[in-house]
Write a structure and sequence with these properties.
Helix content is about 15%, strand content about 50%. It has about 120 residues and is an alpha+beta fold.
């Protein structure tokens, strides 16, 4: 549903290219982070991640996820966290800043353009 670019920093690099894919189903969201380029494998996180969102109006959403989307990687956001994530994006206009941090001091930064999100989500079956 979303493809965007950002940057990441970890113990080996600072402000390197990050490719991001975010998809939604009616019950879950998947966040796929690819270091350097989209053709790189999606990252897998052993201990989950903290996710912080901030919209243009100063509204903030924070949650933590420990789930993988599937065996190839990605973060799975489900249950109450998915509902809050979905509703937050529906209520935001324009850009939403996203910061994802893992337990190993890695940091992933990108923005989501929410234009048309509500309409696209409502078309999901």
């Amino acid at each position: 549903m979303f493809n965007t670019e950002g940057v990441f920093s970890d113990s080996a690099t600072s402000e390197s290219n990050l490719s991001v894919e975010i998809l939604f189903t009616k019950t879950a969201a998947g966040i796929f982070l690819h270091k350097y380029e989209q053709s790189s494998p999606s990252l897998t996180f052993k201990n989950g991640c903290k996710i912080d969102l901030k919209n243009d109006f100063g509204g903030v959403l924070n949650f933590y996820t420990t789930y993988k989307w599937n065996q190839e990687g990605g973060l799975r956001v489900s249950g109450t966290a998915c509902k809050k994530f979905r509703d937050y994006l529906k209520q935001s206009f324009g850009e939403v800043e996203v910061v994802i941090e893992d337990n190993y001091s890695s940091r992933y930064l990108f923005t989501i353009n929410t234009t048309g999100f509500s309409e696209a989500y409502n078309e999901l079956k």
